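Re: the multi-chain job from yesterday

Posting the exact lines I submitted so nobody has to dig through the queue logs.
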Amino acid sequence: KAGVTQTPRYLIKTRGQQVTLSCSPISGHRSVSWYQQTPGQGLQFLFEYFSETQRNKGNFPGRFSGRQFSNSRSEMNVSTLELGDSALYLCASRVGSSGGEKLFFGSGTQLSVL
Amino acid sequence: GESVGLHLPTLSVQEGDNSIINCAYSNSASDYFIWYKQESGKGPQFIIDIRSNMDKRQGQRVTVLLNKTVKHLSLQIAATQPGDSAVYFCAENIRGGGNKLTFGTGTQLKVEL
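And the result, structure tokens for all chains:
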């Protein structure tokens, strides 16, 4: 069974631009979560989607948004990029949306904002 | 002050020895815990999980111990191998806090030959 797939693997953008990251969950998984990982803040929760609905949201500005499609694939968008948005963005999936389920991560998209 | 980066605690062990990585949590409402391993350039990889109604769980070469009295979690790796070198994170799910995981800062495990 294929794991969580994230594209692109690396991305370089400039301040003010916007970016869209893509995530394909493990087959059969309906929940997709996004995390931001930086050396300064560690791993921080962005949001979770289940059956195309946002179930939970972390403490990030409105510039960070996401969506989930009917096939469970998810996209994350960051608008008006800032230097501090440089990070590894990780997508994770699990079967359902209840707490207490294993969460499986992709390899991430490394975003560099210049 | 401004953070310039998380200082990861480092644990250095000899190949073949047992490793113990510790994690403290503060929320008594945490009901589920997971350990992840992250190698350079990769996403976190699931190792083992434990629910709050358990004290111990074993996997292949790994054991997780949960002490709810002192809010402490540990990961034991038996016969540590060079391939175990990575950053290890504990994460908790807080009951009633949505389904997000809250991650610890991580511990760098270095296996010396």
